[in-house]
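hey m, so remember when u said the C-alpha cells were messed up on ur end? i reran from scratch. heres the input so u can diff it against urs
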Amino acid sequence: MLHRRTVGDVMTEEVITLRPDTPVHEIAASMDANDIAAAPVVDDEGAPIGVVSASDVLRHETGMPDPQGQDGNDEHAWGKARARTAGALMSSPVFTARADWTIPRAARELLGRHVKQLPVVGDHGSLTGIVSRSDLLDTFVRSDVEIRGEVERDVLGRILGLEKGTVAVEVREGAVTLRGNVPDPRLVPVAVGLCQGVEGVVAVDAHLAAVGAD
C-alpha cells in the first residue's frame, strides 16, 4: 500500500490556546505576536470548547457586530462585539478532526463547515494539534523530485517489484511519464493506477511495453 498522509502528518502540534477567561486584549496581543488567524479555547481538561478568530477580535475592537456593517440586528453578533473574554467571544460548538483522518476527509470537513482550520483531538477529547486549509493544500503541492522518488521507490520498486532502471520516470509539474518495459502487459494499467494515486500527481502518460510475455 502507498503511504497516504493523514491529518497527524501535516497538523501543527504546538498550538496557541486560550482559556474561557482570557481577556480580549490578551487574545489580540497573542494573535499578533504569533501571527495566527484563530486560536482554540480549551477547558480545564485541555479539550477544545470553542474557537476565537481574528474577525471575532475585529468585531470587538470596532465595537460593531460586523466590520462591514452587516448583522446589525443579530443579538449574538452584538454580544461578541461587547465580549470581554474568550468565552464570550468564541464561536461554539467547535468542529474537530482526528489525527488518523485522511487529507481528503479533513478537506471535505473544512469545506462543509465553512471554516479555515480544525482543532485535532485525541481519544479522550484533548487537543493534540490544529490543521488548516494551507496545511492540507501543501500535501497536494509536492516537488517533482518528491513525486519521482515515490514513484520509483514505492510504485515501481516496492509494490511492482521491478528492477531499478527497468522503467524510466520523468515528472514535470506533477505530470508523470513512464517509459520502459514490464514483464506482463497487465502491469501497465496497474502501474498507471498506482501512479495516479501518488499525492501531487496530476496526470500519468505511460509508454510501457510488455516483454517476455507469451
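this time it looks ok to me. The chain has two domains: 7-138, 144-210. if urs says something different then somethings off w ur setup not the seq
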